[in-house]
C-alpha cells in the first residue's frame, strides 16, 4: 500500500528572469516500508517538490500550480498550516543538509530534542529524558546523557548530522525524508550514517525518501531509484534493473560517470555533455534531449510519458527512444573495423 502518493505536482517560481518551471506534473508513490532513492543533478527539482509537499516552500517566489500529496489518507496540500506542522517532525521526520543552519545554535541539543518530543508525544519527566538519551544512543553518539546539555557547536559535523537524524527519528516517523543528509560529510561518517539508517529501517520499518546526487549512496540504501531531471521523472524502478539495464540516456550518463570502485585500471569517466537546462526557458520536449546524443526529432518536440519497460515490474522510463537497441548498435559499429 502506498504511504505517500504525489499526483500532478507542478511548482513554479516567479523570478525577475521569468517563471522557473521547477517541478512539472510530478507523479509518484512510495510504498510503506520502501526506501526510495531520488537522484539527479543539481536543479532537477528534488528539494523543491519535497518542500512543496511539506508546506515549507517559500511562497512567493514559489507557487504550487497544481498537485495533491496523499499521506495516509490525507491530502497534505489541502491541510492547514497547523495540521501540517503537527505532521512534520511527528509522522514525517526530516533531515536536511547543513545541520549548522537547521539546528538552533543558542539552544542545547537536549532542549531541541525535547521540543520535538513534547510537541509530538505525551512524554514528560523521566520518560522524556530517557527517550532523549535513547535517541542519541541510537544514532551512535557516545556519552548521550552528557551530550544533551551541550550546544551544536560543541559537536563535530558528523555528530551534528547524527543529532539531526535523531531529531528526524525522534517520534518514530512513518516516513523519513532526508535531503542530501550526508553530502557534506566525509566518506567514513557517511558510511556510518547509512548503516544507521539501515538499522532504523530494520528496527522500525520506517519508510524512507533519500534524496542525493550520489548514485553510489542510492545503490547502497534504496529499494527503488527515481532519476529526476528538469523537474520530471526520467526513469524509475527497482535499483538492480535500473543500474544494470538503464533505459534513459540520462540514467546511463549518470551511471557511466560513476568511478568504478575496485577497478584495477582507471576507466575513463564519461561526462554528460552540456549543462542542465535553464528552467525559466525549458526545452519543449524531453528536457534531456539537448544533451542526449541519441535524441530523435520527436524527443526535441514532445514530452515523453513515463511508461513501463522490460519485464521488471515497476521499471519505468520517459523516453521516445530504445536505449538498449541504440547501445547495441553503437557497440557493433565500434567492433567492425
Ligand atoms: N527560491 C527560489 N527562487 C527561484 N528559483 C528557485 C528557488 N528555489 C529553487 N529554485 C529553482 O527550482 C529548480 C529546482 O531546484 P531544486 O529542487 O532545489 O533542485 P535540486 O534537485 O538540486 O534539489 C531549480 O531550477 C532552481 O533554480
Ligand atoms: Mg536540493
From TrEMBL:
Q: Which residues form the ABC transporter domain?
A: 4-255
Q: Which PROSITE patterns match?
A: ABC_TRANSPORTER_1, ABC_TRANSPORTER_2
Protein family per UniProt: Belongs to the ABC transporter superfamily.
One GO biological process term is:
transmembrane transport
Task: Enumerate the UniProt keywords alphabetically.
Answer: ATP-binding, Cell membrane, Membrane, Nucleotide-binding, Transport
- Write down the InterPro entries for this protein, in alphabetical order: AAA+_ATPase, ABC_Ni/Peptide_Import, ABC_transporter-like_ATP-bd, ABC_transporter-like_CS, Oligopep_ABC_C, P-loop_NTPase
Say yes or no: keyword Membrane present: yes
- Principal cellular location given in the protein's record: membrane
Gene Ontology CC: plasma membrane
A single GO molecular function term of this UniProt record: ATP binding
How does it sit in the bilayer?
Peripheral membrane protein
Record Gene3D superfamilies: P-loop containing nucleotide triphosphate hydrolases
Q: Where in the cell is it found?
A: Cell inner membrane
Report what the protein is called.
Answer: Oligopeptide transport ATP-binding protein OppD
Amino acid at each position: 500500500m502506498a504511504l505517500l502518493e504525489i499526483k500532478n505536482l507542478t511548482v513554479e517560481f516567479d523570478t525577475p528572469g521569468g517563471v522557473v518551471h521547477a517541478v512539472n506534473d510530478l507523479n509518484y508513490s512510495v510504498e510503506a516500508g520502501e526506501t526510495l532513492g531520488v537522484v539527479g543533478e543539481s536543479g532537477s527539482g528534488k528539494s523543491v517538490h519535497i518542500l512543496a509537499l511539506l508546506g515549507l516552500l517559500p511562497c512567493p517566489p514559489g507557487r504550487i500550480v497544481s498537485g495533491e500529496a496523499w499521506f495516509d489518507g490525507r491530502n497534505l496540500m489541502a491541510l492547514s498550516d497547523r495540521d501540517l506542522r503537527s505532521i512534520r517532525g511527528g509522522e514525517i521526520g526530516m533531515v536536511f543538509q547543513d545541520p549548522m543552519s537547521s539546528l538552533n545554535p543558542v539552544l542545547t541539543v537536549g532542549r531541541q530534542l525535547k521540543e520535538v518530543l513534547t510537541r509530538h508525544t505525551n512524554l514528560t519527566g523521566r520518560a522524556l529524558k530517557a527517550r532523549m538519551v535513547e535517541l542519541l544512543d541510537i544514532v551512535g553518539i557516545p556519552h548521550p546523557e552528557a551530550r544533551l546539555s551541550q550546544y551544536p557547536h560543541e559537536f563535530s559535523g558528523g555528530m551534528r548530522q547524527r543529532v539531526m537524524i535523531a531529531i528526524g527519528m525522534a517520534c518514530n516517523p512513518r516516513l523519513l525524508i532526508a535531503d542530501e543528509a550526508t553530502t557534506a560529510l566525509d566518506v567514513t561518517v557517511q558510511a556510518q550514517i547509512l548503516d544507521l539508517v539501515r538499522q532504523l529501517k530494520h528496527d522500525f520499518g520506517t519508510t524512507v525518501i533519500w534524496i542525493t546526487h550520489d548514485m553510489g549512496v542510492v545503490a547502497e540504501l534504496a529499494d527503488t531509484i527515481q532519476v529526476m531531471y528538469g523537474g520530471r521523472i526520467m526513469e524509475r524502478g527497482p535499483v538492480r534493473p535500473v543500474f544494470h539495464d538503464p533505459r534513459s540516456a540520462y540514467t546511463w550518463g549518470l551511471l557511466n560517470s560513476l568511478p568504478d570502485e575496485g577497478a584495477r585500471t582507471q576507466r575513463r569517466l564519461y561526462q554528460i555533455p552540456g549543462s542542465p537546462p535553464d528552467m525559466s526557458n525549458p526545452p519543449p520536449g524531453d528536457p534531456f534531449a539537448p544533451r542526449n546524443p541519441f535524441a530523435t526529432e520527436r524527443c526535441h518536440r514532445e514530452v515523453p510519458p513515463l511508461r513501463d519497460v522490460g519485464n521488471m515490474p515497476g521499471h519505468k522510463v520517459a523516453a521516445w527512444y530504445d536505449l538498449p537497441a541504440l547501445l547495441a548498435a553503437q557497440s557493433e559499429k565500434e567492433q567492425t573495423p
